[in-house]
Amino acid sequence: MTYRPTQDLVIVGWLKGITALQSGVATTLPDPATWPTMGAPAGPFFVTTMVVGGESDQELPIDLPVASIDVWAATIGGATPPWGRAAQVCEVIRDAARAHASIPRVVTMPTGFVNACVMDVWLPGPPPRRIPSDEAAYAHVSFELGFTWSAVS
User: Fold this and answer.
1) Element at 59 (helix H, strand E)
2) How far, in Å, CA of 32 to CA of 93, rounded?
3) What is the CB neighbour count within 10 angstroms for residue 126?
4) Which residues contact 125 (CB under 8 A, 6 or more apart)?
5) What is the DSSP letter of 45?
6) Contact 11, 148 (CB under 8 A)
7) Quick one: three-class SS letters along 109-140?
8) Could you read off the pLDDT of 74-89 as tens digits, one per residue?
């Protein structure tokens, strides 16, 4: 038996399809020693996501979740948050969302789930904003993305 994918699986799968993000996307923040690197100067980053709103079509099997996209960046051995790197990662994601509007993409799901077709990605909220006061001296920047997707067999 195969299952319909969850909102989290589709959103994480779409984000992982952005080449520059590598494997640096999940719903929870892992140990920073496992984070990929990006930016100038290059350093560790990670992207977490969580559904914060949206809706489902009442007559068609289409979902329209809105997700919080949280970008984390760290400076190994440093005390100054690398805000610039976190902002760079945000812009990579926002550029992919803007480029995606006219190009639907099938997202491959894990074994046991049917794939999903992400038909649209949009920027529903304000621009990326800093989230201050992180005790670990990480740069944490957040923004929202909206998705339109449907399961495909």
Assistant:
1) none
2) 20
3) 9
4) 66, 143, 144
5) E
6) no
7) CCCCECEEEEEEEECCCCCCEECCCCCCCCEE
8) 987 777 899 999 999 9
Structure confidence at residue 71 (pLDDT): 97
Q: Which residues pair with 130 in a beta bridge?
A: 141
Going through 7-137 in order, the beta strands assigned E by DSSP cover 25-26, 37-38, 43-56, 62-73, 105-107, 115-122, 129-130
Here the tokens at position 127 are: 């621009």
- Token pair 């805000």: residue: 83
- The pLDDT of residue 82: 92
Structure tokens at 65: 């979740």
Token match 């760079």: residue?
Answer: 88
C-alpha–C-alpha distance, residues 82 and 90, integer Å: 13
3-state secondary structure of 1: coil
Six-digit token string for 121: 């990605």
Q: By the 8 A CB rule, do 72 and 47 touch?
A: yes
7-31 mean pLDDT: 95
Considering only CA atoms, give the Rg of the chain: 16
Q: Is residue 4 classed as helix, strand or coil in its secondary structure?
A: coil
Residues forming a β-bridge with 72 = 46, 140
Residues near 111 by beta carbon (within 8 Å), at least 6 away in sequence: none
